[in-house]
UniProtKB/TrEMBL annotation, chains A, B:
Entry protein name: Transcriptional regulator, ArsR family
Annotated InterPro entries: ArsR-like_HTH, HTH_ArsR_DNA-bd_dom, Metal_resp_trans_reg, WH-like_DNA-bd_sf, WH_DNA-bd_sf
Organism, as annotated: Gemmobacter aquatilis
Source species, domain of life: Bacteria
Short name of one Pfam family: HTH_20
Presence of keyword Transcription: yes
Residues spanning the membrane: none
SMART domains given in the database record: HTH_ARSR
Amino acid sequence: MERSKVLSALSALAHEARLDLVRLLITQGNEGLAAGDIGRRLGLPASRLSFHLSALEQAGLIRSRRVSRNVIYTADLAGIGGVMSYMLADCCMDHPEVLACCGASARHALHRVTEGDPAPRDHCSGITKT
Amino acid sequence: MERSKVLSALSALAHEARLDLVRLLITQGNEGLAAGDIGRRLGLPASRLSFHLSALEQAGLIRSRRVSRNVIYTADLAGIGGVMSYMLADCCMDHPEVLACCGASARHALHRVTEGDPAPRDHCSGITKT
DNA sequence: TCAATGTTTCACGAGTAGTTGAACCATGGA
DNA sequence: TCCATGGTTCAACTACTCGTGAAACATTGA
């Protein structure tokens, strides 16, 4: 993934409403959610919602399709994953101490390869900060 | 990690110079780098550099310590990891398709548990986007 | 104490992002 | 064709961020 795409994605994510939007859409899976439903759930007025949705779509984090009168939005999982991958691998160089914080997620990523060694998600707060 | 901290971290990262800064500092490990050296390496004027460094420090992504005349900056690996962890787990709900994009990083996180199945980092671009 | 070096802070102007409400476009049903 | 509904775009304003250069501060050595 190109650097400029990552930057625009980070910039898109760096907003409370848009982070909520991504989170909500991820929970909705491929089915997605109509713009109106999103606005009702998040309590956003239509024009602002549309503004934020187009910012996220521009950044490659969500997708849209028209279904009758509704516009259905879905999370672009590959786009989101690409940003995370860039951050972890290209920016953080897969630094062990950074990745340790994502331990739980990493386990999911490997389809629960391991069973022992809990290494809880909030492990980060206990990391030595020399 | 709190939501507001994640937002300020994302906002801090959403800038070319600051992403470079984090990347550079991560490669320098605990030893870190003096502000002046950073400026020389990245070709940033002192005032701009200081501005960006303090933004990153405020966001909990880097740390500083004074050593004689120099101010040494280091990456705050726990802070960075915390943001990544929040994004993967709390925002993306550990969604398998998102995590699949971080496959290589995930493997590192598990201390090279697996040896086979390369699953290259740019796997994301090949993910089915239904 | 003074000068040199390293770094931060400040004031300013330019550009960009965010919010709001109204107007507009697209679609489907009467 | 007309109206209602669902979304988007626009204009205007505010607020914030960025970059620049000059000034200020901190530390060290002479």
